Amino acid sequence: MGNYDAKVPPIREARLKAGDTFGGALCELMDCCREGCLIQKNRSFWQAGSCQMNGAMMMAGTLEKTVIVNHSPGGCSAQLHFLSFQAAKGMGRRGKPNLSVPWLSTNLTESDVIGGGEKKLLETIEYADKTFRPELIFVVLTCAPSIIGDDLDEVVQTARGRVNAEIVSLHCPGFKSRIFASAYDTFYHGLLKTLSFSPKPWLDYRPIDENAPDAELRYAAWAWQKAHTVNVWNATSIGSDDEAEVARLLGALGLTTRIYAEYASRDELRKVSEAALNISMCDVHDDYILKYLEEEFGTPYVIAGMPIGFRHTREWLLAIAAHFHLERQAEALADYEEKIAKDAIAPYAEKIKGKRVLIYGGAVRAGVEATVMAELGLEILGIRTYHYDEGADAVFKDVERLSPEATISVSTQLFEMTHQIKTLKPDLVLSHNGTQGYMAKLGVVSVQLFDMDKVFFGYTGIFQILRRIVFEFKNTSYRDRLSKRIRLPYKQAYFEGNTFQYIKN
Amino acid sequence: MSDFVERPRSSCPLGGALATLANLPDIVPIIHAAGGCGGNLTASIAFGAGYLGDGYCTGRTSPTTAVSETEVVFGGNERLEEQIRTTLELMEGKLYVVATGCMTEMIGDDTDGVVREFQAEGKPVVAISTPSFRGDSYHGYEIALDGIFNKFLPKAKKKNPKLVNIFGLVPGYDPFFRGDLEEIERLLTAVGLSVNTFFTPGQTFENIASAPSAALNIVFSRVWGRDFAGKFEEKHDTPHLIADLPVGPEATDAFLLQIADKLGLDLQKVQKIIEKENSTFYGYFERGADIFCDGDLKHYAATVTNATYALPLTRFLTRELGWVVTDSFVTDKLTDTQKSVLNDGEFPLQFLQGAQEIARALNNNHPNGRGQRYFDDLSPLYILGSTLEKRTAAARGARSLSLSFPVYDRFITDRGYAGYRGGLHLFEDLVGQIMSVKS
To answer: How far apart are alpha carbons A500 and A32 in whole angstroms?
Structure first.
């Protein structure tokens, strides 16, 4: 692939046919993506969003015993307060010490921007190591030092000789990519360039003495364990209860599950290669690292959608089971689970049948959720995805089959979302974390598309999603009253025109 | 050692400017920076200041040029021109403020030039320069105010002798700015003044527009807003008064008398209001005496706040509660001049930023006992700081209340600590925090 040797990871737009701007029909989107026109699209009006740097720090901050060094002026790390408290909670939910990650900003000043910030970065790394004694230090390269040409890797190389922690560099200046998903590749690139994914003898295991009488037995035990262990790759939007549901189902097939890379420690990461299979829980999240692990260790991988809803969960389980010749068991498991869960969800599904719904969030999650809702008898008015790349094609072919009429928007933009809510008038929105306040102000009933404190995956998940939707419809007073008093910042004329009128090309 | 910062309690000038603009009525920001700056910076305020949240045109509704590599290489003037044009077309506002980020400043975009073209067409657009490497949020607050009040607003034809403007409390970075402003407005209105607070929900663009006609600017910070008020005075001939935020009856009595003197108000009327406020305050305060005294709630205290809150808070704890404040940490990055303006001898201040540094200083100043039988340690201790101080407090077995940025463990709406009511609120919160562990 070549990318893995590079110092700097490729951005999503360069690695895949990816884009963040589209409005129209799904078949057009898939053509546009295939032909590469998606990447050319742009808007003449933009609203603020997030950036790949923030995403990279969001992931890095979840690793155990970590310090983040943000090589930047004072503002870039502003969200780390929030992200570190969130990560601390996530740690706690996974039975680990719920300590929030410390971080430092090199706090670049005017003279640093003129004279270079490398010396300061080195001092900051040394201070971080000495003060917090972390196992890992993530050094994050932002816009300003990237423009002045600070050599991050040179500094990191020097620092490696001086500090105890392992240093991972993350190249993620915000202006380089408009696609948040680039952060996933940046993060994994940093990990794979620096950290070991193989266990160390005597530290992680006792080597087998070939001449010992039990050598053969011990070897067989190791081989059996590896052959029945799978790595499941998580994402920040996947909660601990989702991980538990997945581990429960894989456990029922006799597989041992290890969850990576968020909330793992440096030592746990050394076990990555000790698995029979790497499994993705989101098609556009981790192909970069899974392909690397296949190249490097020969570990096969499965990218088969998200285990949400009956059909996807079954397909996901079957794709995994196929590697272990456990298809029959997986079918039986899915049959059994569905039988119980179908009875449980029936009264809830009945209550929301026929509702007209808009879904907004990450490409794969939004697509998968749309098909689940469509199969439950809801009408999908539209799907909004933060970005789109060819990794999402498999999921969206399924969407096309079930909801050919749905409007597809690739957009992080709240003005387009507001337009759609005002013109499509959905009964319900399933929407990404961070947009719920806007939904309430628009007076539309909405439910989180994900929430790290709740369960969405598998059989437990589908029951809980439906329960939450029904709960939300039980009393809508808050939204109704609030929305009557809200003044929107948009001029009325916009709502009389096309949602996508600010898209160019 | 370098001036890197551990867990900064401020962001950059762009962040401070956006926090400021986000809390002013009918103002639409246009962020000339990478697409993430606006979202990241405003979210840190929307969540980190007691869950302040988003308002009219803030956070992820904020227009931005979202510059990419193309603009960084070829310049962003055209993109800016396009974004201002579409913003004027799509977004409803009385004033549009273009604020720059580090990357567009570094590549040398002619932001002023682009904005001038729109101004020439009579469009209400103003540009401010807020590169992230030139100061922090507090500077951004002053830059934003300067752009609106000194650059954009014309001189008033006539002064209103009863109108005052309030400055110095920085939205978000003073997490109780709204409650504090409400109380100041309530008191000054009671003594017969009209008050522009700008940043409370009841204010409109009219308040901004009327600012140049004010008789006095009151700046509730010895360091933040001071330069801006000086420039305001130069342009609009409005004098300014630098005052500490009054917290509790003693400080508020003195403040009201100072204002009466400054603006020639009817002293008898002011005295009457002071009397009435005091009897209300003590009517409540008195009832707290039982729990406060029987509960043995006298504490040593350490404060960890910005420059604006340090002295008012220390004074309240010392003068009204009779606590022994041993350490007052100021977490802003200040110049030596600014430090000397604060350090006037009333209370000694320590200037440190990082939570770790502060915890260490506290331990160095007051070592914990190591099992000695007779040891006068710093206990009972109450730390009034940010959420970052909770761990420091827990490690020392101290109590803590979060009241400085970032505040992640409380939800703040119109609560404030200024004035008479604010003093009561602070008393209530300090005691309430202790009682909240009961079950």
So the answer is: 16
Tens digits of residue pLDDT in B36-45: 999 999 999 9
Q: Best residue in B26, B37, B72, B411 to probe A by mutation, most A CBs within 10 Å?
A: B37
Q: Do A74 and B132 touch (CB under 8 A)?
A: yes
C-alpha to C-alpha distance for B16 and B365, rounded to whole angstroms: 33
Give residue A243's pLDDT: 97
Residue A289's φ and ψ, nearest 5 degrees, are: -80, -35
Q: Which of residues 28-67 of B touch A (CB under 8 A)?
A: 28, 31, 34-44, 47-48, 53-54, 56-57, 59-67
Beta carbons of B66 and A49 less than 8 Å apart: yes
Chain B positions touching A491 (Cβ under 8 A) are 89-92
Q: Are A277 and A231 in contact (CB under 8 A)?
A: yes
- B82 to chain A, any CB pair closer than 8 A? The answer is yes
> Which pTM does this prediction carry?
0.96
Q: Long-range contacts: A473-482, Cβ < 8 Å, 24+?
A: A473/A351, A473/A352, A473/A428, A473/A445, A476/A445, A478/A440, A479/A439, A479/A440, A479/A443, A479/A444, A479/A445, A480/A443, A482/A440, A482/A441, A482/A443
Of A286, A284, A270, A143, nearest to A205 by C-alpha is A270
- Tell me what ipTM this predicted complex has: 0.95
State the amino acid at position B265 in one-letter form: L
Task: Give the three-class secondary structure for A317.
Answer: helix
HEC string of B396-439 equals HCCEEEECCCCECCCCCCCCCCCHHHHHHHHHHHHHHHHHCCCC
The answer to whether the CB of A465 falls within 8 A of the CB of A493 is no
Q: Is B356 close to A73, i.e. CB distance below 8 A? A: no
